[in-house]
Write a structure and sequence with these properties.
It is built from three helices and no strands. By secondary structure, it is mostly helical. The longest helix is centred in the first third of the chain and has 36 residues.
Length: about 80
């Protein structure tokens, strides 16, 4: 017999895996773009960090971490 607690735990673990994959992809894009900016002479790193593109990349890397934190909190609540 399946318990709702076990099903909820499995769903939240799957969401945690999705958050981990999203974070790794976002960080890979962020690092790639930072390398591109570092190799270009016309735009300094400080100028790039002031752009909307940098804010978008940073937000894309932060959202999976926030999602993972929520999943961990929900896992804690379910396991109690």
């Amino acid at each position: 017999m399946l318990l709702w607690k076990n099903i909820g735990f499995a769903v939240l673990m799957a969401l945690l895996g999705v958050a981990a994959v999203a974070y790794s992809r976002a960080v890979r894009r962020w690092h790639g773009r930072m390398r591109d900016v570092g190799s270009e002479q016309r735009q300094t790193l400080e100028q790039f960090m002031a752009t909307d593109e940098y804010r978008r990349l940073r937000r894309a890397a932060f959202l999976p971490i926030l999602g993972a934190a929520v999943v961990v909190a929900l896992l804690y609540l379910i396991s109690r």
